[in-house]
Amino acid sequence: MTTDLNRLPPEVRAHIAFQAPPSGTRVHALLNRLEGVRAAGDGKWSARCPAHEDRSPSLSVRDTGERVLLHCFTGCESEDVLAALGLTWSDLYEDRLDAARFAQRPNKALRRRMADLDPLEVERAVLRIAATEIRSGRVLGVEDQARVEVARERLKAWEGAR
């Protein structure tokens, strides 16, 4: 259950275990939706992670003034944490270009998982996903069409090399 702190009576707010940032700041939208929020220093908070069953705070939130940083110590991806709260990176950033750049940067866990993938399986997956989209009546965008063509050419070249 999330509570908008501004709706609480002042005497109740006085007993809350953390100092909320000013309403309207980038991090306010995030902290207002989390449970078990506690101050952990200047611009730092801990809370229960909404992306998994969390009984004690395992999520670290930090507002650097330029960025909002999230880290779940049990390993949840930041995007999963935001999705569980109904938020995206763009909700936390005023500059949408900065949010897009930050959200698209691959993290270490993703790079490790990608390194373990069979490249041919990746190309087959691209074609399967595209086929599913087309069967569902969706039209592929220009970038998706180009990626499908790359996958088709790579698989065709591999078949020819065998």
From TrEMBL:
- Annotated signal sequence range: none
Q: Which GO terms describe its biological process?
A: DNA replication
Return the InterPro entries for the record.
DNA_primase_Znf_CHC2 (IPR036977)
List GO molecular-function terms, semicolon-separated.
DNA binding; zinc ion binding
Give the domain of life: Bacteria
Q: By what name is this protein known?
A: Zinc finger CHC2-type domain-containing protein
Taxonomic source organism: Thiocapsa marina 5811
